[in-house]
Amino acid sequence: MESIDQALESLRGAFLPRFRAAATEQALRDENAKILGKKGELTAILKDLGKAPPESRKAIGEKANVVKKEVEAGFETCLRELRQKEREAELSAPPFDLTLPGRAPSGLGHKHPIAIVREEVVAVFRQLGFAVFDGPEIEHEVNNFTLLGFPPDHPATDMQDSFWTTSGHLLRTHTSNIQIRAMKSLKPPMAFIAPGTVYRRDDDATHSPMFHQIEAFLVDRHVTLAHLKGVLAEFAERLYGPGTPVRLRPSYFPFVEPGAEVDIGCVFCKQSDGTRKGCSLCKHTGWIEVLGCGMIHPVVFENCGIDPEQWSGFALGMGLERLAMLRYGIPNIKLLFENDPRFLAQF
Ligand code: DAH
Fold first, then answer.
1. Which end of the chain is more exposed for a tag (fewer CB within 10 A), N or C?
2. Within 10 A of 236 (CB to CB), how many other CB atoms are there?
3. Is the pTM of this model over 0.85?
4. What stretches in the chain show pLDDT beneath 70?
């Protein structure tokens, strides 16, 4: 049997040419493992150390460690050389061909259903002559409630219903604050649309603590309910197709008088002859509620320094999540906020 010393010597002479012969990093690593790995040659030699005659064991052990260090250093050097060679080859190769056609896009981003609906609604109102008016999401209660005619004990002003921050500020609970901001800062006539994010302490299958609204309002001389109805009819036709019927149901909002809720003919059970047979989505009524509206209350005008004897106007507000859910038949509002690509890719 070859002595341990001889085995060490022959390994010492062989490892470098073996490393140098490796053409790739993987081949080099494989070769290294054959020597230093668990079942490697040097590892095997070290295991046999016990068999060496006791008087030479120490010297052989030291030599084995020296060889091990040499192998490790040799591996590192060869690895560096190999990488250097690869880099040089890369740099001296012909440059990238910039004339090659691009690869097919791997899933371009696209619009969120709420953004789609918002852009549609804004487009309809812009065509009718309304301009966009923006405002802050952290609002003072004066603009969010007081000047809109909310009594101080209105449930919406409660800690349970709204997110209050400090000293009379809260996350706005609706976009109606924009009516106040516009009317306080500008002189009529005016026609604005205000899309934005709003917040309420609400969380279930059809409510989210953060959601989106669009407010629209118009102030001019001699504005009547007929103008409001005309705008609503136009809105329903443009968004849900020609002939979509609209109806107003009396309702109460502190900042309008009279106030109404608006239904459109159900878009889900509409028959080819234009009638509706009723379905679960419209609770078998043939009608679906889409927004709140009314004639701007004289007190709101006064609160903003506008003379209600000279000016009148209408306002309306709608929830975008609701519009999107109706449009696409989305059963749970959470789907709109989870940003699951499998859901979003469908729009
Ligand atoms: N601000 C109301 C809400 O969040 C919606 C609304 C109702 C807006 C009637 C209006 C309106 O402008 O006239 O529930």
1. N
2. 22
3. no
4. 1-2, 106
Packed helices 113-127 and 320-328: angle between N→C axes, nearest 10 degrees: 110
Task: Determine the distance separating the centroid of ligand 1 and the alpha carbon of 111, expressed in angstroms.
Answer: 26
Helix (H) or strand (E) holding 324: helix 320-328
Identify the pLDDT of residue 2: 58
Of the candidates 171, 173, 169, 175, the one whose C-alpha atom is nearest the C-alpha of residue 156 is 173
DSSP 257: E
Angle value at C-alpha 210, between 205 and 211, nearest 5 degrees: 75
Q: Residue with structure tokens 């052990």? A: 61
Residues whose beta carbon lies within 6 Å of some atom of ligand 1: 174, 176, 215, 253, 256, 259, 292-294, 315-317
Instruction: Provide DSSP, 225-249.
Output: HHHHHHHHHHHHHHHH-TT--EEEE
Structure confidence at residue 164 (pLDDT)? 93
Start-end of H helices in 22-92: 25-36, 41-47, 54-92
Q: What phi, psi does 57 have (nearest 5°)?
A: -60, -40
Q: What is the pLDDT of residues 135-161, one digit of tens each?
A: 999 999 999 999 999 998 888 778 778
Contacts of 20 (CB under 8 A, 6+ apart): 78
Copy the structure tokens of residue 268. 């889900």
pLDDT for 106 = 67
State yes or no: cis peptide before 152, omega within 30 of 0. Answer: no
pLDDT value of residue 1: 40
Please report the pLDDT score of residue 110 as a whole number: 82
Cis check: omega of the bond before 298, within 30 degrees of 0: no
Residue pair 227/314 in contact (Cβ under 8 Å)? The answer is yes
- 10 Å CB burial of residue 76 (0-12, 13-18, 19+) is exposed
Cα–ligand 1 centroid distance for 262 (angstroms): 11
Task: Give the ligand 1 atom nearest the CA of 176.
Answer: 1
Alpha carbon distance 124, 186 (integer Å)? 23
Atom 5 of ligand 1, residue of closest alpha carbon: 317
Name the CA dihedral angle for 337, 175, 287, 127, rounded to a multiple of 10 degrees.
-100
